[in-house]
Amino acid sequence: EAEVAQSPRYKITEKSQAVAFWCDPISGHATLYWYRQILGQGPELLVQFQDESVVDDSQLPKDRFSAERLKGVDSTLKIQPAELGDSAMYLCASSLRTPESEAFFGQGTRLTVV
Amino acid sequence: QKEVEQDPGPLSVPEGAIVSLNCTYSNSAFQYFMWYRQYSRKGPELLMYTYSSGNKEDGRFTAQVDKSSKYISLFIRDSQPSDSATYLCAMINDYKLSFGAGTTVTVRA
Questions:
Q1: Ramachandran assignment for A28, one of left (phi > 0), alpha (psi -120 to 50 degrees), beta (any other)
Q2: Could you tell me if A102 lies within 8 Å of chain B, comparing CB atoms?
Q3: Could you tell me how many CB contacts below 8 A there are between chain A and chain B?
């Protein structure tokens, strides 16, 4: 069964260090989302791609976060420098196309900043 | 005010009970509606997907959409301890996928 792959599953990093997360969406899915989920809250959109183009990055803290999807397939989300408040679950999702296609999530990367 | 409102609970029910979960939304442009189940420390898993007002059934799950009231519901019949999880409602407006805060459900054996 096709699934969204994310790595690493867990990451512990020190404050001010750089950290990167990787996502490989379901094959053929044009839309890719990165969400951040703080414990006890719903996911909040950080950035959305349609193929290789950014559709929405209005909630991405651009002074420290960056995201790319160079060939319109897999994607990388980077944080530099990491802050204590960045500790959260980072979720990647993909869908065939928006708005009429359902989105499927990966297992997420749990980041702890110490 | 958030675009999607969901009572975070927690909700605790005995095994076999009907679980009723709800979300309200403020933006009438939302077109497609989803319910996800999320187990602790896992990614959300899609349960139901609907795009029109009315009911949709899948096994023990029923999703209900009332666009005139901007209100969606998920019902779980004959609840099992394995249904204990956080349930997230989500909806799409044009291209943006927005989530509720999630309701934590515990089904007691």
A1: left
A2: yes
A3: 70
Q: What is the pLDDT of residue B16?
A: 97
Cis ω for the linkage preceding B8 (within 30 of 0)? no
How far is it, in rounded angstroms, from Cα A60 to Cα A50? 16
Chain A residues within 8 A of B4 when measuring between CB atoms: 42
DSSP state of B18: P
Query: B28: which residues sit within 8 A by CB, 6+ positions away?
Result: B67, B70
> Of A91, A98, A101, A111, which to mutate for an interface test with B (greatest number of B Cβ within 10 Å)?
A98
**At residue A6, what is the residue type?**
Q
Q: What digits encode the pLDDT tens for the residues A70-110?
A: 888 999 999 999 999 999 999 999 998 766 788 899 999 99
- Residue A99: which of B43, B88, B94 has the nearest Cβ? B94
Place of tokens 């702890």: A112
